[in-house]
Amino acid sequence: MASLQDIKGRIRSIDSTKKITSAMNLVATSKLNKSKEAALKTRPFFNKILTTMQSIAQNAKGTGSPFLRANGSDVKAYITLTGDKGLCGGYNANICKLTMNAIESKAKTHLVVVGKKGVDQFKSRGFEVNKALLDISESPAYSDAKEIANYVIDKFKKGEIGEVYLAYTSFKSSIQQEPQMVKILPLDMKNIEEQISESEQPSDLLVYEPSPEAVLGYIIPRYVADVIYGGLVEASASENGARMTAMDSATENATEIMDKLSIQYNRARQAAITQELTEIVAGAEALK
Amino acid sequence: MTKIRLQILTPLKKILDEEVESVILRTTEGDMGILYDHEPVVTLLDYNTIQYTQEGVKKVATTMGGFAEITSDRVVVLTDASEFPEEIDEERARQAKERAQKRLADKSMDRIRAEVALKKAITRMNLKGSI
User: Fold this and answer.
1) Which candidate from B7, B42, B80 shows the least CB-CB separation from A206?
2) Side-chain half-sphere exposure of A48, counting CA atoms within 13 A
3) 0.90 exceeded by pTM
4) Cross-chain Cβ contact A226/B11 below 8 Å
5) Cβ–Cβ below 8 Å for A52 and B43
């Protein structure tokens, strides 16, 4: 049986760990509220972009925008959104796994990774990270999304990459998050139409000022940036949600272990007292 | 007068969603006036202002690029940023203008970005100055 000192030491160390996890739980909860709000505020804009994309797609089938068809390159780009910090359960691992499973050959892959944890995971498994973005996952700004969008659009236009996918964790609720992958380029019109099938049908006789090409040339890069921004905002809410749940269960586990240890400690203490008493009584007996 | 619904949306939040009588947009091709039952149009916007009348009162806000979708009874403006005159910080806009001008003079800086920043600053200052 462990000595009293040992048990006391363990109780103390678990108690301090518990203090940290419960503090992190509180921090994650308040951050979650903030990022949830941000996610809700973006949605009207995001939905409108989707509806507009749909109506334009119907009208613009004839126009030769390079974003609407494949460009011949068989390199696939994956944008993976992870966090900069750990201690959030399986959040980072799950999203990286999703991307790794999707990758067919390392040579024909172009990786764009947001978040330190993701970069580390990919590197340790021998993947080459072509572009890494750190320190933005916690509170993503629109300019960050634009930077990523410009980067992939540039590569896509040059023909260095043929397809672009975005892997992010979508925020279902505070306790449920789901890793997801969406195709961004070339535009998959069927997919867009499905996503907004329940919304109102836009009129199909639209006029474009100054020209359909100009409008399309503006809106498609914009749409890419918006999808990425939407993903970043959702991912940040998911990360906080995942951290909250992970820290909550860690705190619970710590309490459980402490309960067990304090029972053990009391037993050991009692055993020591009993033993001491027996020794004293035996000693007194011997002196008689 | 039949009203039209004007929505101004930015990536960060919804700025406006109200019934108005008329809207004047500054598109990349020039001004465009919109009343009820307008032809359906999608148009690109310039860095400038949007004017609208609500119950006879003329109101104005900035639009920073983006585009507008116009259907017979609604105008939806999607733009990078939009402010009402009372929300604009004139001092900040003035500083932004100076900074942008300096960057434009320096050839090594990102020209397009500086130009956009300059346009935004001038739009904000013009709107503030016109009142």
Assistant:
1) B42
2) 25
3) no
4) yes
5) no
